[in-house]
Design a protein that fits this description.
Blueprint: H1 4-9, H2 15-25, E1 33-36, H3 46-61, E2 65-70, H4 80-92, E3 102-103, H5 108-120, E4 124-127, H6 131-138, H7 155-166, E5 176-179, E6 194-198, E7 212-214, H8 216-226, E8 231-235, H9 242-251, E9 259-263, E10 267-268, H10 275-283, H11 298-304, H12 308-318, E11 326-327, H13 329-343, E12 345-347, E13 349-350, E14 353-358, E15 367-372, E16 382-387, E17 390-394, E18 414-417, E19 422-430, E20 436-444, E21 461-462, E22 465-466, E23 471-478, E24 502-510, E25 523-525, E26 529-533, E27 543-548
């Protein structure tokens, strides 16, 4: 958007854009400046994608600026690993931030000076109460708080003790600095909130320079101001914190006074989007790590093979709301399938192989058959796949005593091999335990491509791979991680984990070029689902993750 006319022509898609467009039209802002401000205490999840797409998306729409800022004010939980993963996730989603990466810690000296300013103005004091006593004195939603016995210390005494706190003269937790606002306020956040605390922790960026650290509530608004943020977009849990956000901006000599607006968090059925709970899953080893494909983390979704564009499409469909609500997981799955249907290369793979010997096909011969890489692509590119005397088919594609509606391979029954020929099962070979281990079939060489010249109809079509040319692979089939739409609603959410959320299949058979195909190419194993090569793949072992099954139930009538 390059000028005012284009702003006039654009219809806002949500209430936040409505406010921003109005501010631009009315001249309240010359340039919009937003920010995405994660705390680096874990990996981002798809809920954060809503905030990423909102903040970066709005900036792109109106020729504004969006900063990536880390609110790194709690070194006890923050790590460089998390910082790096967040940067990677934002870039992978297709966004880039303005200028250099910003950190709340860049402003630690300024925060300390502003804390001194509040002390000198009689608007902050050092409190010796314990954490438990502070909670008790704060009161409840129905009972007002009580003043701390240390609330009326002189500014000089508070300043000296605060400097002693900075200099490491007190142990962690012994004292805090609190803003002096109103212990009788109906908003608990205004009842003398803590703005500085003693922490004996190594900071990822400042090391051991500081012994005291500002709280998020104190640092957040002031960092917004320093960066020239015009619209501070937060989730609804910060609505009750907005009066405190504004109090600090009014009380301090800040260079800018941004406005805070809140929107509803993203909630998805069959999904847990709590960083605390995701951390627990990782720490208790219910998953293999933050990028486990069963997790809704952006890195987990990426490893599973979910395209960034599918996530952005999902976020666009969900939009931004003032009201809390749950989105069906099926909508996300629909967006994933919709994207992959057009972007995924088609290949043949057999996950649970059963050998088929085509008795009338010449031994040692290989016939190369044309196959379409993607029927939805404008390019309509073809590849050649090998066909030989011995092939693999899925165990489930054969039934010795077929039901009436079973249209796949059975004794005496003819079936179409995808891209190849019509074959008929003649003999079933079993091992000593009665398990079917091989099928002996015959093919009709006149049916190359799967069509009979005499016009006979064959209902069943199955996939296959040439046994001579197939490569071995491990396939990881991911299912829903939870057994219930609302994990943890009535009990510990860990109890709702699906024990069958991951099925590892060894000795799968895949087309030979899948070994060398670009790692970032999404694949549809025909008739089986969408798959993506896992980064654990080595020259000795090829691993594919199932991104999602083929069946789409979104917007379908029951």
């Amino acid at each position: 958007m390059s000028d005012e006319a284009s702003i006039e022509d654009r219809t806002p898609s949500d209430f936040i854009r409505e406010k921003i467009y109005s501010d631009l039209k009315n001249g309240n802002c010359k340039q919009i400046v937003t920010r995405f401000p994660p705390e680096p205490n874990g990996y981002l999840h798809i809920g954060h994608a809503l905030s990423i797409c909102l903040n970066f998306g709005i900036a792109e729409e109106v020729n504004g600026i969006c900063n990536l800022r880390f609110d790194d004010t709690n070194p006890a939980k923050e790590e460089l690993e998390f910082i790096n993963s967040i940067k990677e996730d934002v870039r992978w989603l297709g966004f880039n931030w303005f200028g250099h990466t910003k950190y709340a810690s860049d402003n630690f000296h300024q925060f300390f000076e502003w804390a001194e300013y509040l002390i000198k103005k009689g608007l902050a004091y050092v409190d010796d109460l314990t954490a438990e006593e502070i909670r008790e004195y704060r009161g409840t939603l129905t009972e007002v708080g009580r003043d701390s016995p240390y609330r009326n210390r002189s500014a000089a005494e508070n300043l000296q003790i605060f400097h002693d706190m900075r200099d490491g003269k007190f142990p962690e937790g012994q004292r805090v600095l609190r803003a002096k606002i109103d212990m009788g306020s109906g908003n608990i956040n205004l009842r003398d909130p803590i703005i500085y605390r003693i922490l004996s922790a190594h900071h990822p960026r400042t090391g051991n320079t500081w012994c005291v650290y500002p709280t998020y509530d104190f640092a957040h608004g002031q960092t917004d101001s320093i960066e020239g943020i015009t619209h501070s977009l937060c989730t609804l849990e910060f609505a009750d914190h907005r009066p405190l956000y504004e109090w600090f901006l009014e009380a301090l000599p800040v260079p800018n006074k941004p406005k805070q607006y809140e929107f509803a968090k993203l909630q998805i059925s069959y999904t847990v989007l709590s960083k605390r709970n995701l951390t627990r899953l990782v720490m208790e080893q219910h998953v293999s790590g933050w990028d486990d494909p069963r997790l809704p983390t952006i890195s987990g979704l990426r490893r599973r093979g979910v395209p960034a564009e599918a996530i952005k499409d999902f976020i666009a469909r969900v939009s931004v709301s003032k009201n809390e609500g749950e989105v069906e997981l099926a909508l996300l799955e629909h967006c994933i399938r919709d994207n992959l249907n057009y972007s995924a290369e088609r290949r043949l793979a057999v996950l649970k192989p059963l050998k088929v010997v085509i008795e009338n096909f010449p031994e040692g011969k290989t016939e190369w058959l044309p196959a379409l890489n993607n029927p939805n692509s404008d390019k309509q590119e073809l590849r050649k796949i090998p066909f030989s005397r011995e092939i693999w088919i899925e165990q489930d594609d054969f039934m010795e005593e077929p039901s009436k509606k079973f249209f796949r391979l059975a004794p005496g029954k003819e079936v179409r091999l995808r891209y190849a020929f019509l074959v008929t099962c003649n003999t079933v070979i079993k091992d000593e335990d009665g398990k079917v281990v091989e099928l002996q079939c015959s093919y009709d060489p006149e049916t190359r491509g799967g069509n009979a010249p005499d016009g006979r109809k064959v209902k069943g079509t199955i996939h296959w791979v040439s046994a001579k040319h197939a490569k071995d692979a491990e396939v990881r089939v991911y299912n829903s991680f939870y057994n219930t739409p609302s994990p943890g609603r009535d009990r510990d959410f860990i109890e709702d984990i699906n024990p069958n959320s991951l099925e590892i299949l060894e000795n799968c058979k895949i087309e030979p070029d899948l070994i060398t195909l670009n790692d970032n190419v999404p694949i549809q194993f025909e008739r089986l689902g969408y798959f993506y090569k896992d980064p654990d793949t080595t020259p000795e072992k090829c691993i594919y993750n199932r991104t999602i099954s083929l069946r789409d139930t979104w917007n379908k009538k029951p």
